[in-house]
Design goal:
- By secondary structure, this protein is α/β, with parallel strands linked by helices.
- It contains eleven helices and 13 strands.
- It has two domains: 147 residues, Rossmann fold (3-Layer(aba) Sandwich); 122 residues, Rossmann fold, CATH 3.40.50.
- It is 37% helix and 21% strand.
- Strands 1, 2, 3, 4, 5, 6 and 7 form a seven-stranded mixed sheet that branches.
- Helix 10 packs across helix 11.
């Protein structure tokens, strides 16, 4: 097992005798409407299993009456208070990028960051979302046809999921977003990396889904804060597999309707766990036990 960077595990708590024990790690999650997130419990439980005093704080912009414009101050405060890093979620995965000193190759390619490591006065952005989705998909929908996949959402999470789908061998990913320009830009970026014909943008869900093997929702629709579905339920059919990256609630309205119609489905739980495992390692330098984290997520 790799040893943890000293800059991240320098803080230790002492007992009455003055003996130092339990390396301490302080991290957080920045986003909007995240009070129901299971990420803090996932990280803290895995930290405890590995002998760390692991503290994970929610920085909910909505609860604090803030917006993404406060990200510069939040990052500065996190550095000053000794945070090892921050997870980043909706709506900050792309707006955080100009505030960072460096990006990992994955974050650079995707144009989205979900993990910021704070070390030696520097802010380094990473993306563990795409691997989290890919690993979950491999495990739960290994044999589905993926010649043509329709993806709803072209934001930071959408960029990661589309990258994962094409890495997993999807023939073509059709991107649909309420911002048509953003959908076109993401499709163009995907073609540049994966080749012509591998990605396109669309505007009509019914037309796109008519010839699709599966669909993925990467928008916030379906979250407790944003109830609803990205498509009318009548567009679902039994031979269409349906994935949703939302995991609170774990069964979104989209997945409930899809299951009722006989569709194979994939919830956002697996992606949440595997991206968390990747972030844990970046924050601590320790290999997370993903199987143990999956069991803990199920227990929750």
């Amino acid at each position: 097992m790799a040893s943890a960077p000293s800059s991240e595990l320098h803080s230790r708590t002492g007992d009455a005798s003055g003996t130092w024990r339990h390396p301490s790690v302080l991290v957080g999650l920045v986003g909007t409407g995240i009070q129901a997130s299971r990420t803090p419990a996932l990280h803290e439980k895995e930290g405890a299993e590995q002998g760390l005093r692991y503290i994970y704080k929610l920085i909910d912009l909505e609860a604090l009456g803030l917006d993404a414009g406060m990200l510069p101050e939040i990052l500065t405060a996190a550095q000053r208070f000794g945070f090892a890093g921050l997870n980043i979620t909706h709506p900050c995965k792309q707006t955080v990028i100009p505030l960072l000193d460096e990006l990992s190759p994955d974050a650079t390619a995707l144009g989205a960051v979900n993990t910021v490591v704070l070390r030696n006065g520097r802010r380094v952005g990473h993306n563990t979302d795409w691997w989290g989705f890919a690993e979950s998909f491999r495990r739960e929908l290994p044999d589905v046809c993926r010649d043509r996949v329709v993806q709803f959402g072209a934001g930071g999470a959408g960029a990661a999921v589309a990258h994962a789908l094409l890495t997993l061998g999807a023939g073509e990913v059709v991107i649909i977003d309420t911002d048509a320009h953003r959908a076109r830009d993401l499709a163009a970026a995907l073609r540049a990396r994966f080749g012509e014909g591998r990605a396109s943008s669309g505007s009509s869900p019914s037309e796109a889904l008519a010839s699709a093997d599966g669909m993925v929702n990467t928008t916030p629709l379906g979250m407790a804060k944003y109830p609803g579905m990205v498509i009318p339920a009548e567009l679902l059919r039994p031979d269409l597999w349906v994935a949703d990256i939302v995991y609170f609630p774990l069964e979104t309205e989209l997945l409930r309707q899809a299951r009722a119609r006989g569709c194979s489905t994939l919830s956002g739980g697996g992606m949440a766990v595997f991206q968390a495992a990747g972030a844990f390692q970046l924050f601590t330098g320790l290999q997370a036990n993903a199987e143990r984290m999956l069991r803990h997520f199920s227990d929750m």
